[in-house]
Design a protein that fits this description.
The chain is of the alpha/beta class and about 475 residues long. About 35% of the residues lie in helices and about 25% in strands. It has 16 helices and 23 strands. It is globular and about 75 Å long.
Length: about 475
């Protein structure tokens, strides 16, 4: 692609010489001859400091927010936004050829996006998926590093989807991605909001900032589907160009409501009452939150023109998602469930779902991530203690933070210590939980979900709880 053609996608000052561009990057380590290098300022590193080195490594143009005195520089108002727009242009604005659905919210993003892909695959469409668990182009899978990828990877995926015949893409859109303008210039045919509870305050600083970051999705959406049972829902779409569409389990004034809800150990069953018709939804994942997730997916399909009978038929064929209420296969007389619940609301929801159907006692094992919102730690301790018969507090991803300090923060919220056990070594904690379980009990391993690693002070280690449970039960 020619530099002059690429730069038409942004507003800039400067007169760089026209030349062939081989790629666009914000990482100076990825500069190759022919690159356009965008100087992005991060938490501890400012790309402007690496501009000269990028030129030495073969960059043909530097995009900056202020002049660096370089001959081949262009100046823009915001390099993060410019980077996203340049990546889109380089890949032929492939996103414009897809029906894009963006899902945001504290909890439920992954399940809703995965459920939408499953549904539309069953309906006969070829689709893409971008999110926490995996990125998919049709049936091809690619590892996911971030919930919402870097713009170069994001638009590369869009381009591959278009080239291979995909018509729809369902993607999780995180608050950090919105704040960092990773999806700048992308229009979503549908934006979906699940809920908003405390999380990521280590990044956003305040709950208000967190809300405003999520709201950005609906400034870029044509239709805004929001959970009316969440008090933040009106603010998500108010004052945005998105046409509001609401769904609810509790409010009759919503556009779509769930009635005659039946919850069981095998899943959820309810009447979805739409504007002009009613359909019976049978979704085989237990818990009240599964009503919300399946409603969000069904409403999205309805707004995209799919008939309700086809939607309910497709939903009945859909299964669960890795790390979300995932039952670990064992030969034990008790159950082991893995769930990604890592927020107060997420933990409360999964505990409530298990408590609705369990026969024996609930043993909840969890920890909290290091270098993340510390204020949620005692809240999660309190929630676990209130809803469980036994609580085992351990490590999650402590990163460089002292694991015991994290544990102390959790334990501070637990008023009754009679059912509390503390073990900082997560493998040893799991062994203790399995040892204490009796017939009919449920052992909940919360926090890690789909992750197959732990992040410690000295780096990542392999840590797949499914394998660990199997090894422990085999006596290894």
């Amino acid at each position: 692609m020619q530099l002059r053609d690429l730069l038409r996608s942004i507003q800039y000052n400067g007169k760089p010489e026209n030349t062939t561009v081989s790629r666009v990057t914000e990482d100076s380590r990825k500069v190759v001859p022919g690159s356009v290098f965008c100087c992005v300022a991060g938490k501890g590193v400012d790309g402007h400091d690496y501009a000269a080195q990028a030129l030495k490594n073969g960059a043909v143009c530097v995009v900056a927010q202020h002049s660096l005195g370089l001959a081949c520089e262009v100046i823009v108002e915001n390099t993060r936004a410019a980077y996203a727009l340049l990546c889109a242009a380089f890949h032929g604005c492939a996103h414009e050829k897809l029906t894009l659905v963006g899902v945001t919210g504290t909890n439920g993003k992954t399940t809703t996006a995965c459920l939408l892909k499953q549904m539309f695959d069953h309906l006969g469409y070829k689709t893409g998926l971008i999110g926490t668990l995996v990125n998919m182009v049709g049936d091809a899978e690619y590892p996911a590093v971030l919930t919402t990828p870097d713009p170069w990877e994001l638009h590369s995926l869009f381009a591959e989807m278009v080239a291979t015949g995909c018509t729809h893409c369902f993607m999780e859109v995180s608050s950090q991605a919105l704040d960092q303008k990773r999806v700048e210039g992308v229009t979503f045919q549908v934006g979906v909001f699940s809920n908003l509870t405390q999380d990521h305050l280590d990044y956003h600083g305040t709950f208000e900032n967190y809300l405003l970051a999520k709201r950005q999705l609906f400034l870029q959406s044509e239709i805004g589907i929001v959970n009316l049972d969440d008090e933040a829902a009106p603010r998500m779409v108010q004052g945005t160009p998105a046409r509001p569409v609401t769904y609810s389990m509790k409010r009759d004034n919503a556009d779509y409501t769930a009635k005659e809800i039946q919850l069981s150990a095998s899943g959820v069953n309810y009447h979805l009452v739409a504007r002009s018709n009613i359909g019976r939804v049978d979704y085989r994942v237990p818990g009240a939150f599964s009503v919300y997730n399946s409603m969000a997916a069904a409403c999205t399909a309805l707004e995209l023109g799919i008939d309700l009978p086809r939607i309910t038929e497709a939903l009945a064929k859909c299964g669960g998602v890795k790390g979300r209420m995932e039952v670990v296969p064992t030969d034990t007389p008790y159950s082991v469930i893995i769930d990604y619940a890592h927020t107060p609301d997420g933990l409360e929801n999964v505990i409530a779902a298990i408590n609705q159907t369990r026969q024996g006692k609930l043993i909840t094992l969890f920890g909290c991530g290091g270098e993340r919102d510390a204020a949620k730690r005692p809240l999660m301790g309190e929630i676990a203690a209130q809803g469980s018969d036994r609580v085992i507090v351990t490590s999650d991803n402590p990163r460089s933070e002292d694991p015991q300090a994290i544990i102390d923060g959790i334990v501070a919220g637990i008023k009754s210590r009679t059912k509390l056990h503390v073990e900082s070594d997560r493998r040893a904690a799991i062994a203790y939980a399995l040892k204490k379980a009796k017939p009919g009990d449920v052992v909940l391993l919360a926090g890690k979900g789909q992750e197959t690693y732990q992040v410690l002070a000295d780096g990542k280690i392999d840590f797949d709880e499914r394998e660990i449970v199997r090894e422990l039960l085999e006596g290894r």
